[in-house]
Amino acid sequence: MTERLKDQVAIVTGAADGIGHAIAELFCKQGARVCVADINGELGAEVVADLNGQGYQAIFVKTDISSSAAVAAMVQETVDKLGAPTILVNNAALISVSSDVLETTDEQWQRNFAVNVDGMWKCCREVLPHMKAAGVGSIVNIGSVHSFKIVPNYFPYAVTKHAVIGLTRNLAVEFGQYNIRVNALCPGMVETPAAFKAWAKTPDPAAARAAIANVHPLKRNSSTGEMAYPALFLASSESSFMTGQSLIVDGGRSALYHD
Q1: Would 1 be classed as within a structural domain?
Q2: What is the tens place of the pLDDT at every residue in 72-124?
Q3: Given 157, 178, 229, 257, which residue is catalytic?
Q4: Which of 2, 81, 158, 168 is most buried by its number of CB atoms within 10 A?
């Protein structure tokens, strides 16, 4: 089987669990050397130990992407241990929402943007010089259905996910001349550990899970693996003439008409 990312070096943020973990594992299986960057040191180390145990080449770097210094150190460690990054998947995100928009605090607003937008930009800023020098690169920014549709009670998270699309398009235009592509992957409801934790807090977790599943025309939620393969497509040369675009993978949810 041809390895679709053979000899590539990829950084995947937020890769200790959920979508990021699935992407990091699939990228390894497809021949990439992968940096797992995550703020969770225990889980991140476990993920990399498992990947290395399977014979893949991966490193873990504990990283708070809201910190410019931490991001710079993470990228440098990737360069030193794996080589210059040719792929970046900006997956790390924070979901912090306010039930009342007008009660949103400055701290809530700033923390959402610090991770979901500023952190994404900081990672791009550090890898782009390496991609320019190599004359090739692919950046995959993880957006959301919230990047296009407003769901009540997701403020200011949805605002940040709209901003991800603007960042994606702007960088795609600015860096296309260097053969660097920038696209967004926008998932619907994905059954991540965080999702199960949220459902567990409801009176009937099974009902809460089923309710969101039924919103989708496919009548189910996505697995993390179902997000990894679209990310692979965007990262690989199979999407070589695609940049500045948003790939919505949401089980048909965004196609629905809502009153």
Answers
A1: no
A2: 999 999 999 999 999 999 999 988 777 789 988 999 999 999 999 999 999 99
A3: 157
A4: 168
- Does residue 137 lie in a domain region? yes
**229 part of the active site:** no
CA distances from 250 to 42, 147, 257 (A): 30, 12, 14
pTM recorded for the entire structure: 0.95
Strand partners, 144: none
Angle CA 79–80–82, to nearest 5: 65
Instruction: Judge whether 59 lies within some domain.
Output: yes
CATH number, domain at 241?
3.40.50.720
**pLDDT tens per residue across span 39-54:** 999 999 999 999 999 9
- Structural domain boundaries, residue 127: 9-189+223-254
183 within domain boundaries: yes
Q: Say how many domains are in the chain.
A: 1
